[in-house]
Design brief:
heterodimer, A: about 600 residues, mainly alpha, two-stranded antiparallel ribbon, about 75% helix, globular, B: about 270 residues, Cytochrome Bc1 Complex, Chain D, domain 2, 2 domains
């Protein structure tokens, strides 16, 4: 082991210990001081709210990254183990390297956040502690477990190779389980703040802490965040690959990072497609928990937020499709499919417009009367759930079509049933689209309670089509004749800018959603239970919030670039450790086995 | 000179974020402000000031006048004139102060004869008064025929501040009324349907469409409008003084609560 590596390791360990020390020490102190302590202290210059906001958002960005990336890193490692293809192993290691680099920053930011709560929101912190103290200990222990298993996973890569590979893969799986458990615990705190349950009127636990953990929004947020972490991890890893691609000096390097970017984006895209559904579920639970909160969120002072969100999601869909279309340029034989692009583009554009149509905007009483209600007479038709569900489902289908065309760009099936197969595939697309549109239109003629059920049919149709098309596609193109290998690395550089666009947009979107999640509590720390009586009780408008989100996102990327740059430095130092890798220049995405 | 990739990418990222930020700043900027609250904790107030604050709360945030009048009998709640004196004898063993505090925090603990149990706990949502406000309000009630002797410490620490974080305020309005019965009133005895439209229920054209009234109006406004239409202003484009001011006399307390419960479902 080099001395640099030792130093690094000691540094990581020190950060972890510091984090835990702060964590465990903060508790009794806070509780004792409760009587004498003020409810709030002011953070110098920027005030406590902005301090907590910035650190929380940064911490969340990093945490999402280090929780999201290992999920697909381990899957890719398993693929590599299965197929015996070393390039997957290389890629997985590359991903874990990024996680590793971001690990101690995450922990330090977590410790900083804790400092801020203990120091500047003492009464709030004591209140939460009274309820959640048990989970604190478990969280700390899990954090230990997670840290050490990831360390072993990363450092044991060579040691646990060959016949011991199964052990290594298990390590990856185990550290993911720890990571998910950590995520779920942290989620219990913040979902409790949104939808508190399990406590008496005076704020004490009624039964066990499970009553508070298992609140109305906990599971929806767990699922939503887990998926979003995958998307986020994918886009950030994709941005890293793009950065390396554009900086590459050899064709070999360019090919490698082109491929990495493609895989990372593929991961992000696959997870992104299911994200809206998790979002609807969360929204429904919020409505069910408290109508007022739901209305504040969708129709009240936050209504514009969803328009911005729709724009960002539109950008993500466009970006993904554009990336796939550009990617076809590196595939000989793809010319056949170019003619479809304008149609797909117009469906996306239409869907985007519908989605960005506001549902009900906040209006003054006078405006509402002038309009005859809070719905715009014309726009209102496109502003409701039915239209939006239809739009998003069609956009997902279109994106999937882009992917299918991309997949077969250089392949000529050698199956005798290829015509039938393709006909069935197209039929699946058409039927799914028809079902989506049918229920979308029908939705206008039924009660809203029935209408909510329709979205299930729409999603079912889309997912069904995806499964059916893929089940046909895989055997149909197995052993297919190739019109030429994918020329990895020969993609126009602007495609790499698209990857950056996706990463920046998704990070910003995450900041926005964080604002939405915490903003709907308005002037409550814990909704309906503990009021925010600080000077910051006003929930700011979107412009202010977006300035803040942008600033924090800039800081985040500055951090990330620095950390990635550090990673690059160590790579140069350890030249050869993991370098000899087969460049993925084989036919299709399948490299010959060793 | 070649621009380094890092610089180009950073500039690109800044442009993207810049455009999102620009857009977010160009739309209507709406803040969500916490409702105004009175805090007298630790402050020096004379009994006279306190009574004045209390009267203010009685008329505004407390929304007591939905049910009570002073100096005249409300249809659904007792006249509060002289309550400061009367309170001392309401309940054996309770002083006036204790009785008044109890009637605000636990209104159902002692029911004035002949009245239904409809008074809400005023330190809970939707009224959600905090301790300071309760203190002032009790002082005001005492001043109605009695002596003002209430101290902040007389108000239980748990009142209005369940979690030690300051008062609570309206989170959700739940009325004990029955919306079904309210709908029957709307289309029957209360004759609202003759003037108002509600989708699939009524088609009157004299007054405004109420199909989404609960969405565009606060519960407070709706409750008050039914009792005293003139006091709540006139909806532009509609005749003044047409909506009858007599519902307060015409409806019983239960009917009123049912009707409002129905109106609040219209969104």
């Amino acid at each position: 082991m080099t001395s640099a590596a030792t130093r690094r390791r000691v540094g990581h360990a020190a950060a972890t210990v510091l984090f835990l020390a702060v964590f465990t020490h903060a508790l009794p102190a806070a509780a004792q001081e409760l009587v004498r302590e003020p409810a709030y202290r002011a953070f110098p210059l920027i005030g406590s709210r902005l301090a907590v906001w910035a650190v929380a958002q940064l911490h969340l960005n990093f945490a999402a990254f280090i929780l999201g990336v290992p999920v697909f890193a381990v899957i890719i490692e398993i693929i590599g183990w299965w197929t015996g293809d070393p390039k997957y192993d290389w890629l997985s290691h590359e991903f874990v390297k990024l996680v590793f680099a971001a690990f101690s920053t995450t922990a330090l930011l977590g410790a900083l956040l804790l400092f801020l709560f203990v120091g500047f929101y003492p009464r709030f912190w004591a209140f939460m502690t009274n309820i959640f103290v048990t989970t604190y200990w478990i969280y700390a222990l899990l954090f230990f477990a997670e840290t050490f298993s990831v360390y072993l996973w990363y450092y044991g890569w060579n040691w646990l190779s060959g016949p011991r590979k199964w052990l290594h893969v298990s390590l990856g799986v185990v550290s993911n389980l720890f990571g998910i458990a950590i995520l779920f615990i942290a989620n219990s705190w913040l979902t409790f703040m949104m939808s508190p349950t399990g406590i008496t009127e005076s704020g004490a636990l009624k039964g066990s802490v499970w009553g508070a953990i298992h609140n109305a929004t906990w599971m929806p947020i767990n699922v939503h965040r887990l998926i979003a972490n995958l998307v986020f991890g994918g886009t950030i890893a994709g941005a890293y690959a793009a950065f390396r691609f554009l900086n590459a000096e050899t064709d070999d390097e360019r090919a490698r990072y082109d491929w990495m970017g493609y895989i990372a984006n593929f991961v992000a895209l696959s997870a992104f497609i299911v994200l809206p559904f998790a979002g609807y579920w969360l929204g429904r639970e919020i409505y069910a928990f408290n109508q007022t909160m739901g209305i504040t969120m969708m129709g009240g002072f936050m209504s514009w937020l969803w328009i911005i969100q729709a724009i960002l999601i539109g950008v993500l869909f466009f970006g993904n499709n554009y990336y796939l279309w550009l990617g076809m340029e590196r595939i000989p034989g793809s010319e056949r499919y170019r003619k479809y692009i304008p149609y797909m583009l117009s469906i996306l554009a239409l869907g985007f417009m519908v989605w960005a149509t506001p549902h009900s905007l906040i209006v003054t009483l006078q405006e509402a009367r002038a309009m005859g209600g809070t719905h715009h007479p014309l726009l209102g038709v496109f502003g409701v759930m039915s239209a939006k569900n239809t739009a998003v489902n069609l956009m997902i289908l279109t994106t999937f079509l882009s992917y299918v065309l991309y997949r077969r760009a250089n392949k000529l099936s050698i199956r005798s049933w290829v015509l039938t197969g393709m006909a069935v595939q197209w039929a699946a697309f058409v039927v799914a689209a028809a079902i989506v549109v049918f229920y979308g239109v029908y939705g206008y003629f039924v009660e809203s309670i029935v209408r909510i059920g329709f979205s299930v049919y729409q999603v079912g149709a889309v997912l069904g089509a995806i499964v059916l098309v893929m089940t046909i596609d895989v055997p149909m193109f197995r052993g297919a004749r190739s019109t030429g290998p994918i020329r990895w690395g020969q993609i126009p550089p602007r495609s790499q800018y698209v990857l950056i666009l996706l990463a920046v947009t998704f990070t910003w979107l995450m900041g926005l959603m964080g604002f939405a999640r915490s903003g709907i509590r308005q002037y409550w720390h814990v909704y309906g239970v503990m009021r925010d009586t600080s000077v910051d009780a006003v929930t700011p408008a979107l412009g202010y919030a977006s300035n803040m989100i942008t600033l924090v996102t800039i800081v985040f990327f500055a951090f990330v670039m620095f950390i990635f740059w550090l990673g690059g430095l160590s790579e140069r130092g350890e030249a050869g450790a993991h370098a000899p890798v087969v460049a993925p220049t084989g036919a299709g995405s399948r490299a010959p086995r060793r | 000179m070649r621009v380094p990739v890092g610089v180009k990418l950073s500039a690109f990222a800044l442009v993207i974020m810049g455009s999102y930020t620009y857009f977010a700043n160009s739309i209507p900027q709406i803040e969500s402000k916490p409702p105004a609250e009175l805090s007298l904790e630790g402050g020096d107030v004379s009994p006279a000031q306190l009574v004045k604050f209390g009267e203010e709360i009685f008329h505004t945030k407390g929304t007591c006048e939905i049910c009570h009048k002073i100096g005249e009998k409300g249809t659904r709640a007792p006249d509060l004139a002289g309550v400061g004196a009367r309170a001392a004898h309401r309940r054996p063993g309770s002083t006036a102060k204790q009785y008044l505090i109890e009637s605000l925090l636990e209104p159902q603990a002692y029911l004035v004869e002949g009245y239904p149990p409809i008074m809400p706990k005023v330190d809970k949502p939707p009224i959600g008064l905090n301790r300071s406000e309760l203190w002032a309000l009790v002082a005001f009630l005492e001043s109605l025929g009695g002596t003002v002797d209430v101290k902040l410490d007389d108000i239980p620490k748990t009142a209005g501040a369940p979690a030690g974080g300051g008062g609570t305020a309206a989170a959700e309005l739940t009325l004990p009324g029955d919306p079904k019965a309210g709908q029957a009133l709307f289309t029957g005895k209360a004759i609202c349907f003759t003037c108002h439209t509600v989708d699939k229920i009524a088609a009157g054209k004299i007054g405004p469409d109420l199909t989404q009234i609960a969405k565009i109006q606060t519960p407070q406004y709706i409750m008050a409008k039914v009792l005293n239409p003139a006091a709540m202003g006139t909806v532009p484009g509609y005749p003044k003084g047409v909506m009858p001011p007599t519902f307060g006399q015409m409806l019983t307390a239960k009917e009123y609560v049912d009707l409002v419960a129905f109106l609040l479902t219209l969104k």
